[in-house]
Fold each of these.
Amino acid sequence: MVVVVGGGATGLGVAWDLVQQGVPVTVVEQGDLGQGTSGRFHGLLHSGARYAVEDPGTARDCWTENQILRRIAPGAVEATGGYFVATAGDAEEYEERWLLGCQTAGIPVRPVPVAEARQRVPALGGGVRRVYGVPDGVLEGFSLLLGLAKGIVAQGGAVWPRTRLTRVASRAGSVSGVELDGAGGRRTLACSAVVNAAGPWAGEVSTRFEDPIALRLASGTMLVFAHRQVPLVINRLAPPGDGDILVPHRHVSIFGTTDVPVAHAGALGATVSEVQRLMELGGELYPGIEQWRVLRAFAGIRPLFDGGISAEGWVSREFAVIDHGRRGGMAGAFSVVGGKWTTYRKMAQETANAVMGYLGIRRTADTATLRVPLDPGPGSADSDATPLICECERVSAAALARQNGSLSERRVATWFGMGPCQGTFCGDRAAQSRARVVGVEAAEQELAAFRAERAKGMVAVRWGRNAQQEALQQAIRWQTLGEREERP
Amino acid sequence: MTPPVLVIGRGPAGMLAASLFCLAGVAVDLVADGAGTLPLWSGAWHFRSYDGARLLDDPWQWWADAEGHPYAAWSSQQWREGWQTLSQVWRLAGIPTHPLPSRNWWTVSAAGTPDRAFLVPAWQYAVPAAEPVCLVGFEGLADSLADVQAVRYSRRCNLRAEVLALPSPPGWDGTWSTVRWASYLESEPGGAWLLEELTRRLAGVSDELPLLFPQVMGIRRVADILGAITRSTGRRAYEVPAPPPALGGIRIQEQWTRWLLRNGARFRSGHVDGITEDGVTWHHTQSLNGAAVVNATGGVLGGGLAIRRDGSLWETVAARRLGGSSALGQDGRVVTAGRQLPGCDPDRHGDGGAVNLASAVEAVRGTLQRLGWQPARSAGEGGVGIVESH
């Protein structure tokens, strides 16, 4: 048995890979699947072009994995393509290095006449000097995560959300089991290896291996705008920096990001100053951005491995698989840190290789050719004879009832509550029908958690039409829907 | 010819202010760029419903003791006249209400929790004291959750709440909206279906309990439908609010608009973007003459106040920055009315109705005074008054 800690892309990817080799796995996730960094990204499926100059290895990996993901998870990828846009202020010298970098990494780049680009993307301002097309895409992260989890369970593995790792037991210096605390109470589980794929929490988890690793955590803020403001991914053709990616994600657009060092993984939440900075940066490329309606802001934590501690156990420069046994910690304990969503499969594969090497198991299956079992996905037509719960995303009562878990988990699986009303009406409806299953009080708690999660994204973007919308939502919730704590 | 008074906004405050101008014999234009908030609201006015975390029984006493509220200085007499004025306006407009109470009515919210309210449309459940109830639900209506409402009601009130579940009618499908339900129930086959189902299933419900339906009991014929239920079952029948689109507000909007039109008010649609010496500008450049302007755009919610990206608060029509508490006062020709005035938090306090009422009455009175106009019909002690036409 291998226990994987972390229900994000990396952890589920590792478990998916191991379960294909016949290794029994259990994934434990402290919150809901994808609640950490994997659920808080811009949705960009990198072509690799963004890293062509600064990080050629990542650029190559991204392009390879981009092509693999289109094959193994076509339902989770929207092949929009992407533009790299250089403005009059961006250096021409960088453009040449970038073209060379893309060529070296094998990323196909096509020059696009500025007039054509402006016609396709009217949101672009007047200062555009040069445009190139690249095979960027949009990745439906949650669909892929849920597909991996479903696949793991279908192959006999286990996925336990809301379960924390409290202790790793060892015998003669080797991992022998774990102690867990979760929804089902405390329990112990015998295992021969533990994989720490806890993202920003990996530093904390590694302390249980008697070999702590140091991470540098950085928070990246993103803004969600209503509507698809652009038909494809737009990158700035300049050294990677803040506010240079705009991704059309279903019927919203995500603009990011920033990079602010933070002390701990719990520091989630977009700040007003980062949002203001994004708006100013956005204005350089999209003059109309002030008129776009902001829906919410969110922040994800990037966990970067601090390689200065020890270079031992490094498998690649872009992400690291750490074999704690070889560094003087517990044998059978592994950590995987760093990397990108786009390259999660490769990280998972190399982590699985290290674990299988330790267990003496030979690789028999290749995840690069295995289709991930995806659900039809959110928004797929549902002709149930049940009323609609969420009109914005057209989620029916039956579609919601088919999912498992709390309201927040159902939101992720069906996209209810993600539209323009941000769950104002449907949050309440969903909670009411949930009350039939779990009881009124538990449903009210779930609704409160759902509301808190939605509200968090509004705090830093409380201006203009969004402020108006928030006031309206509050009035509807408190006055009309009777969502109050008061007792007679 | 004297230009009309311009009332900007088509929510409860704007409609009330316009009605008061009409009754004072003053020509009024209602200018708005949207439908207003009425369709979001079930129709009950709150005087003061909450005291901190508790439901409040006696709003009169709360206001008598009030400090620090923009309308703390209003006397009981002013409030009484204000509420009477409003209920008379509604009576004239053909919007029936429960009588004005001496204590807050007990009502039931869309969630099934007990609530308190002051001026309540006659179709909505309102009683002097909480009592056991029977909540009726329609299977195919997403917002009709009688079973859950009943659990909440009985827990919070410690009173019995029974449930009567009705199936989906013939021809129903999952796309039926609230309005579709309402128009079915007020159709002839819908009415017959409802009475038949009720008769068939009522046997299991205790005798004396009032029947509380979700707010889908017809659009124009709600009184007929509820009356028919009472005649055929011998029980009191009411609605409780449901999520928007709120039929209560839609009914009120229809009746009130019709009455205002009959009384000479003009409805003009367009976005007001500035205040001038002679009125307002709208549609960017055109001007609209007005003897005075009442800004009833509902604060941040209605778009009358805007929060800019730097956090500053602006009055959108007058394009002026607010220091914090100036919106209540008069500035030249513009008077402000609405539920979200500075110093008010109607969602937390349950006094949005009182703020709407008091600010509309003051806006109209202040405007008439400034213009030196005497109300053509009658003015009582409280300012704008109405002589009932018996």
Amino acid sequence: MRYGLQSGTRTRFFLWSVELVAMVICTVFFLVPFYFIIVNSFKTSSEAAQFSMSWPKEFRMIENFVEVFTVRDHMLLLAYYNSTIITLFSILILIFVCSLTGFVMQRRRGKGPLVIQFLILAGLMVPPAIVPTIWVLDSLGLFKTMPGIILVMAALNIPFTTILYSGFISTIPREIDEAAVIDGCGSWRLYFHIIFPLLKPIHSTVIILSSVLVFNDFVHPLYFFPGAENVTVQLTLYNFMSMYRTEWNLLFANVLLVTIPPMILFLFFNRKIVDGMMAGSIKG
Amino acid sequence: MSKNVKSVYSYTLLIPAAIVYVTFFIVPTVFSFFFSLTRWTLIEWEFIGLENFIRFLKEPQLFIGFKNTLIFTVVTCVLKVIFGVMLAVLLTMNIKTKHFLRSVIFFPTLISFVAVGITFKVLMHPTSGWINQMLGLLGISGPNWLGSPRIAIYSVALVDVWKGVGFATVILIAGIMSIPKHYYEALEIDGGNRWNAFWHITLPLTRPAINIILTLSMIYGMRTFDLVWTMTGGGPGFSSDVIASIIYKQYQAGFYGLSTAGNVLLFLAVMLIVFPFYKFLTRKEVSV
């Protein structure tokens, strides 16, 4: 913007004050809550119960984290294990089925792709029907099972992921397909040997985005994966909220532990996450 | 293109996606219309016509869900756009820390609703919460954010704005960055100031981005559940219940038909509100 490039004293003063305002607003509004979680997860339970922003008088970091992990027969470890398996397998399904769908949707002409597109848009808008889904899971013997929740998580993330894939596949030239067909490739061979390896960049976007979405999901495990042993990370956190009414330090330690995996992903893949989310939502 | 090449994009490639999507999304959605007309125990059902829907519209603790969902959706849509535009304009100015600040604003998008809900529930505590203590320093006695039936739903909506404004900002930044620079140069030659630039160039030309945010916030606003459930549980009483939390409560209580009727109403609301709204927005965009 040209306004930013002027070098007059007034403009420089203006930009300087804008910067100051931006810094203050952003740190106060967006970073203070994190600071609050972190300092309170280090405190003793009586100190954390004051909900204060002050620096811990007595550091109990290790003890708090050990306790959060061991409480209720290592429930949190089990939850991490469950969440990891659910995330891993639903992503594998998503990569496989959505890249195929995106491929056909992108390459075909005529009415077929329009129908697929409509179903995908509908899937983005329509909230899933809860009890009928439970009914379907139950009749297939999948209710309260790991495969059940994995398949539901995959199904509900198909629209968004397919949009990501079809956007990327539009950048791959059709000549590649034609050459492969002339060399005698069939549908599946063309896809597995030629197209799938070319999708590496978008595979990694999908892996990062879906792992955040699936790992952070609360409502679907709540409905489709109930049961004492069937905890996920977000459910544990929710359950601990009622349990730790007096031990806020442990609750905040738990919040921190649950926030760390997406935080790490964000530190490493900041650009990919932002671009991927934008691509998926803008094309949708 | 030869016939041979065309047939290589065989519909058989769609089978894996179709199996998963049809079984676990489309079938339940279609059957929800039938089961919403029944009294249902998962094992057997009894057809009762529109009784579930009538209950939803008649009983105040069910009907309040519509009102709150509407409030939540409108508040989050409007505030995300207003704050998003402000932050996007701020962060496309020539300031040094803009990349850092963009990350700071975007980061809450990646934290789970449960974690955000728990944190803000504490920060919004009426007496010892940080927000009211800060307001107290300014001489303002803060409200009982989550404990007062009149404002609880607004407080939850504000937290949703906090979590989601970073995403809106990022989309708007992309919109602003795609505006050709010479528009601003032309305006400057004509003697326009910053305010003119914002009002006559930035705002109209980021309309597509604003429309995306409005549509997305609307879709997510209408199905909101996580934050309401972790922060207020629909309370005090049922004053902050939204449609999605009522669906959950009825499900817990074993009223499966009634819960499914809530789902169907939510489906209809999304279709009747979001589709025409989206059509309206995109049509205006073309005629500009």
Amino acid sequence: MGVARFLAGLLAAALLHFVGTRLFPAFPRATDLFLLVAVLEARRGHPVGGMLAGLAAGLAADGVTGGPYGLFGFADTAVAFGVATAARQLVVQRTTSLAGLFAAAAAAQQAIVAALALVFRPGAELAAPEWLLARVVSTALLGLAWTRSAELLLARVAARRAGREKKLGAPK
Amino acid sequence: MRSRWTHLLLAVLLVGQLFLLAGQTPDRGGERSLLAGTTLRLLGPLARLVGAAGDAGTELSRALASRARLAEENRQLRAELIELRRERLRLGELELEAEALARGLGFERRSDWSLTPAEVVYLDRTSWLRTLIVWAGPGRARRDQPVVTELGLVGRVIATAGGYAKVQLLTDAAASAGALVERVRRQGIVRGAPGGGLTLELVPRQVPVEPGDRVVSAGIDGVYPRGIPIGTVVAVAPGDELFHRIVVEPAADLARLDFVYLLEQPAPPAELAGEGADGRR
């Protein structure tokens, strides 16, 4: 179930990436939906699952950006592992902390990508600081929005289920 | 114990990807690998689906919004068609005349190119490799095939999978092409520049290149045939001691590509090909 949900998330991220790129050519510079999917999966607190999710999401990101393969793969694997390890030891609930977690993940990913670029592609064009900032902010906002929406939805479903059970169990 | 295995797995994954990255050296950055081919096959249809849905939606909304404008546009296009037919007749006569003169001089021309239309399914100008993915149909694209639009040169095919082809844009930092400044008939090398532009290199400072000069392919790199518009010179600055630093604006609008053409041209004889003719770094 978890794997299917992750793969569905990855497919949705790829679809939204293509739609976003078609509508706004600067979309891939401003946000990374694949990282978002990896971090959401990693927040479940399983380091192995997290790193595999990061690997899959990163390689998918490498695929849609035309490579080189392993660039985002490496960064997302490391970031997702870090998030999963942190999620095992910390319970992040406050809005600012949650946004900080997603922002830190995006910043760490960009730092790793830049470091790899310096090592493997000395002449490569690095992302401009404003786009880096946009990525960090958009990842934080999207991650926060998704997490809060999911929590709200789950709470409503639980409330409805409890109400139904109460109604069924009530003496006539 | 379990934590140790987790860390070992992490190390294996990270080191594996470092090897993968190291295997893709810059000068071979666009070559096809098993991974690249598989990704192209998997993601190509998805990008094509999104593109087709977007085009259909845009067309429908346009058609609904502006029927009157379309009728007017249709009238203008018909008038333009008549004008172009007249022009074609005139050019046809000129071509016959030029061929007769060429025959008289004993000048042997290379055979004409043929064009294969291809639909752009995904354009990514933001990653390091500035690439686009096109759908040309099974077996219709091949490696190193020049890609053009009606405005000018776009790039070359660097990988094919199924009916899809990955095209390296001329603005990619690893791309280059032999070029000719038309007015002064001086050859140089056009390369992709950071920010998505082009630079023209190896043009000596004593050559009077000016903004507005047209740059076309020189046909010296073994990939791009001669005479295809590459762009226009927008800035000329003194470079190092010997050469100009020339900035060229691409002729083809690489931000708005819907359809491109794959250019089919007769290959040079095998014994001559490969002797320094490359067209890429």
